[in-house]
Fold this sequence. Notes:
Blueprint: H1 2-18, E1 28-34, E2 37-43, H2 50-56, H3 62-66, H4 68-71, H5 82-86, H6 92-96, E3 99-110, E4 115-125, H7 128-131, H8 136-152, E5 157-165, E6 171-175, E7 181-182, H9 200-210
Antiparallel strand pairs: 1-2, 3-4, 3-5, 5-6, 6-7
Amino acid sequence: MIKAILREIYGFTFFIFSEEDSDFDVKHSQKYDCQDGKTEINYGYEEYNSADEEKLKSNKHCLRYFYSYSLDYDYKEKFPTNNDCYNADLLPTSEDAGLKCGYGEFTLKYISGKSEVYRTCYFYDSNAIKTKTFDDQSTNAFDIYAWAVSSSEEETLLSYTLEISDDSGNKLRYDSLTKEVTIPSTSQSSSKGVKDIKSKYLLFLLILILL
């Protein structure tokens, strides 16, 4: 599972930056302690065929929707719909591993007393519906999203919740304060403007934190 997740993330990152910098390349190895032992993953050595490349560079890729807050100056005018997310592109290796793209709504709460809702997509392990848990890779990405958006608003983030739904009608709610994943009884939908965040290289650094 983790290899499929990282293959998707690295491929997405690589094809975003290689379009602007033909010399862009990052290769390194990372060791992980897993429940069933230790493993080592080599980043940057994956091979992608033309069909993979087309999906990873697509404006309909699941991660393209998620990171639009950093890639598109006008992203606040084109939040994705649930159908956009449910039909978003993912690599076959991710789909075969049980990953899917879900529709998410972040509710950010600021120390100032304000709260705002932002719509996005995110890909995650479909087993999260059964286990009611998100992996560290996902929760780190959620934290970065909330931090980046609140910083662009010049607000201090107090906490956030995220509700994610899939194309089968399943829903999960993640609370940044309790770190708990629950099944929501209701969900709200709204969107308010946020200031532009435009820095692809900042995005690259943030994604690397997750690798």
